[in-house]
């Protein structure tokens, strides 16, 4: 709610349908990422009461296995009928508005990725990356130059170390910090290959 972040999962209906195992897999992978990153002891999920997706044995067993394997408490709560407006609905609305204003056709699900990416605002991630860099190299002059929506550049000592174009992926923070340290010592910037799964921040 505070950081306006959202994770969007897209798949082709021939590769995955609306069965419970599809949603259980997506949610499990998302939670596993957050568990590895934040090390929580308790997770609270808010869901609508759709039996196929959220209120079923498949998802319950997937969450139970995830909780046992990672020693974390997972609580799933359901919104009441008639009061199911939630944050994700506003995110869908932003994406739908972007779709209505599109100037090109959509032929495959992958075409949605660039559209969704176009409503993302990575300013917060840019600042977080800059903080990581400054922690490892305090004397480095780091600037996050915001470009078009969904992109930014990291510049150190008048040299561009990383340029993030309008994509859904973000660089591995530690690798960027390492390259920054190398550049601050007089070396030329090298290519940053590591990426991390990151949520889309809806502006």
UniProtKB/TrEMBL annotation:
Keywords: Redox-active center. InterPro entries: Selenoprotein_Rdx-typ, Thioredoxin-like_sf. It holds the Pfam family Rdx. This is Uncharacterized protein. The lineage of its organism: Eukaryota, Metazoa, Ecdysozoa, Arthropoda, Hexapoda.
């Amino acid at each position: 709610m505070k950081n306006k972040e959202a994770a969007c999962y897209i798949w082709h209906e021939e590769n995955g349908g609306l069965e419970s195992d599809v949603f259980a897999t997506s949610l499990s992978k998302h939670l596993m990422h957050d568990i590895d990153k934040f090390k929580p002891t308790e997770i609270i999920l808010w869901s609508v009461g759709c039996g196929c997706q959220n209120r079923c044995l498949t998802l319950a067993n997937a969450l139970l296995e995830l909780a046992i394997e990672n020693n974390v408490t997972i609580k799933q709560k359901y919104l009441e009928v008639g009061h199911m407006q939630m944050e994700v609905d506003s995110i869908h609305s932003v994406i739908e508005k972007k779709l209505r204003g599109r100037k090109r056709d959509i032929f495959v699900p992958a075409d949605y990725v660039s559209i969704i990416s176009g409503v993302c605002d990575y300013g917060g991630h840019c600042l977080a990356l800059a903080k990581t860099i400054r922690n490892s190299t305090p004397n480095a002059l780091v600037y996050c130059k915001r470009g078009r929506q969904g992109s930014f550049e990291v510049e150190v000592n008048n040299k561009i170390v990383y340029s993030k174009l309008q994509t859904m992926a973000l660089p591995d923070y530690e690798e960027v910090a390492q390259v920054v340290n190398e550049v601050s010592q007089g070396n030329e910037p090298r290519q940053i290959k590591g990426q991390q799964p990151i949520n889309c921040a809806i502006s």
